[in-house]
C-alpha cells in the first residue's frame, strides 16, 4: 500500500539530494547568502537530520542537538518576510530539481510555508 510516513515516501536518498539542491541555491541567493556560513556542509547535515524527523523518520536531529526550538535557533539571524520568501523559492526549485511532484510535493511545500512564516522575526520597512 501507499506509505503513510512521509519520510518513507520520499526516502533518505531523495531527501539528501533535496537538501543539497536547496543549499546550492541558498549559497547563490543574494538575500540568503549573507546570513549563512560560507561552508554549508554542516548546515546541510543538520537540515537532513531535521527534515528526517519533521517527515516522521528517526529523530536524528534531536538525538544529536536536543529539542529543535527552531524559532529560538533562528533568533541570531534577521529572518524578514523577503528572506522567508527567498527560502521557499530555493526549496521550490530544489523540489523541481529532484523531481518531487503531485500531492506529496504540495503537502510538504505547504507545511514548509507555515514553518518558514513562523521563523520571521524581523519586519524591515525597506522591504
Ligand atoms: C539554521 C536561515 C527557515 C531549519 C539556519 C541558519 C540560518 C537559517 C542562517 C544558520 C545556519 C548555520 O549557522 O549553519 C533561515 C531562513 C529561513 C529559514 C532565512 C526563512 C524562513 C527554516 C525552515 C526550517 C529551517 C522553514 C525547517 C523546515 C533550520 C535548521 C537549522 C537552520 C534545522 C540548523 C539549526 C542548528 O544550528 O542546529 N537557518 N532558515 N529553517 N534552519 Fe533555517
Topology:
Blueprint: H1 6-10, H2 12-26, H3 41-54, H4 60-65, H5 70-74, H6 81-98, H7 102-119
Helix pairs in contact: 2-3, 2-6, 6-7
Bound molecules: protoporphyrin IX containing FE.
Concise structural overview:
This protein has helices spanning 6-10, 12-26, 41-54, 60-65, 70-74, 81-98, 102-119.
DSSP helix count? 7
Assigned CATH superfamily: Globins
Whole-number total of structural domains: 1
Q: Tell me how many strands there are.
A: 0
Please give the radius of gyration in angstroms: 14 Å
First-last Cα distance: 47 Å
| CATH fold-level label | Globin-like
Tertiary shape: globular
What can you tell me about this protein's structure?
The protein is built from seven helices and no strands. It has 127 residues and is mainly α. It has one domain (6-119): Globin-like, CATH 1.10.490.10. Helix 2 (12-26) crosses helix 6 and helix 6 packs antiparallel against helix 7 (102-119).
Amino acid at each position: 500500500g501507499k506509505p503513510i510516513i512521509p519520510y518513507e515516501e520520499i526516502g533518505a536518498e531523495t531527501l539528501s539530494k533535496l537538501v543539497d539542491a536547496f543549499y546550492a541555491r541558498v549559497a547563490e541567493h543574494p538575500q540568503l547568502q549573507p546570513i549563512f556560513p560560507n561552508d554549508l556542509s554542516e548546515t546541510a547535515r543538520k537540515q537532513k537530520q531535521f527534515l528526517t524527523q519533521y517527515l516522521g523518520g528517526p529523530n536524528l536531529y534531536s538525538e544529536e542537538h536536543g529539542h529543535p526550538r527552531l524559532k529560538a535557533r533562528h533568533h541570531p539571524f534577521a529572518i524578514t518576510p523577503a528572506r522567508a520568501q527567498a527560502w521557499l523559492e530555493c526549496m521550490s526549485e530544489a523540489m523541481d530539481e529532484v523531481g518531487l511532484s503531485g500531492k506529496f510535493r504540495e503537502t510538504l511545500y505547504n507545511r514548509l510555508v507555515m514553518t518558514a512564516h513562523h521563523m520571521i522575526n524581523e519586519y524591515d520597512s525597506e522591504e
